[in-house]
């Protein structure tokens, strides 16, 4: 059983997010390095290079940078194709410069790996693979085709063939390894960033709902007295106007509308309870509130509060924290999604801990995925889950969001498969230190206003 929150969040589309200015600045640094290397080789080491051709190749990069700086807007974002073409141009420019300066005999040939690493960090897998192959082709050609390095005395500088082959092998390995390494790392960081952003969105939504509930409850509490007064006064007027049927009907209408206002407030929130009550609740009420949206989804949810506990005087009272409610709701949703018929939610506590267990009678987690439960964007699902939810598209965010929110609230989560003959599915155990979840001290809520019938 793998949770997959449907359509909640999508990975960001590559492209359209890299600024042209960033690549231009990187190219200026490369141009500065190339010019410096050419000047040092010519003035310090007295190498006989084709300086005209070399500076022509560097000049092409300078011209392209000037065109990009003066024609395009400074904050222009490049598409996938545009970024690919820029990186490909840089690779070909560097390959041409290496051809003019000794090929693989030039120690700077390792720089051909740079564009591949940039591609792995910014472009799609197809573009990165193409640039990696192009880099390998370039260094392979430079094994045989290049202008030799000569001193001013005409001496050709050439490394032994075995070292040249070693340089080729090192560059090929670096292209493949660094390309794959950079891509995996960047994908992991993007996945985590997207998942954390989805977590913040979910928490913000839950916070808004909680705040709205507090406003409704406070409004119901504050309006209780005037509504009661309106109802009482209208009832007395109706009695005094027995001989005036037309006015008596108006008084009865006012009473009926007061009753209607009362019913609307009761439907929107628990009338007569102020905001402090919403923040504090028994543990069992908090759990049932989290499960409420999934009670009528065709599966039986069995609540077993204080399992095995006889002394109910120790029943914990906890804060209604949005992150806890939303995290538990996601865990219960996951169990309901993959259960056959039944879901069990058990709660029990000791003097030091509060524990919640959520179990179902489904297929359970795939054994090879147990170690990754709670990671974002897990796409693999059990075949039984595919059959039950063939149109369900998700990326594993549900459990990740729940795990992140509950751990931030001080909980420790463990995931396992049930060994019971009935509770065969997934088992999620959530444990808090009691002092991290429980609130103590009495709070005076005030008396509720009662409506007279």
Could you write a compact summary of the structure shown?
The protein has 453 residues and is α+β, with helices and mostly antiparallel strands. It has 13 helices and eleven strands.
Report on this model:
The protein has 453 residues and is an alpha+beta fold. 55% of the residues lie in helices and 11% in strands. The chain is built from 13 helices and 11 strands. It has helices spanning 20-43, 51-71, 80-100, 113-122, 125-141, 161-240, 245-268, 275-279, 283-291, 322-338, 383-388, 397-408, 434-437, and strands at 18-19, 77-78, 149-150, 156-157, 280-282, 300-305, 317-319, 342-349, 353-360, 412-417, 426-433. The strands form 4 sheets. A 5-stranded mixed sheet has the order 6-8-9-11-10. Strands 1-2 form a two-stranded antiparallel sheet. A hairpin with a 5-residue loop joins strand 3 and strand 4. Helix 9 (283-291) crosses helix 10 (322-338). The protein is elongated and about 125 Å long. It starts with 17 loop residues before the first strand and ends in a 16-residue tail after the last helix. Mean pLDDT is 80; it is low at 1-15, 270-276, 380-395 and 443-449.
